[in-house]
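Entry for iron/sulfur cluster complex. Fields follow.
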Amino acid sequence: MQSLSDLKQRVENVDLWSYSTNDDRCDNCKFYRVIKEGIGFCAHREVDMVVGAPWWCKLWEPDAATAAARARQGAGDAGQ
Ligand code: SF4
């Protein structure tokens, strides 16, 4: 059972927000597991809680599709 104070501490520790200021979002992070549309679970052990698709925290890392898309985009930009 997760206590509210424990959840609050984790939210603080990882700087979790219910929105993102850029294109890095929970639903394109490698730790995100879909529960249903717009709602997921963060599998990072420092978060380990339900999160929303548009949320963000400082532990964000791209999922495979996002990393590949940005690599292609970067290669395209470099060629221009
Ligand atoms: S690590 Fe952070 S950005 Fe990634 S899914 Fe978990 S809470 Fe969201």
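NOTE: Strands lie at 32-36, 39-42, 49-52.
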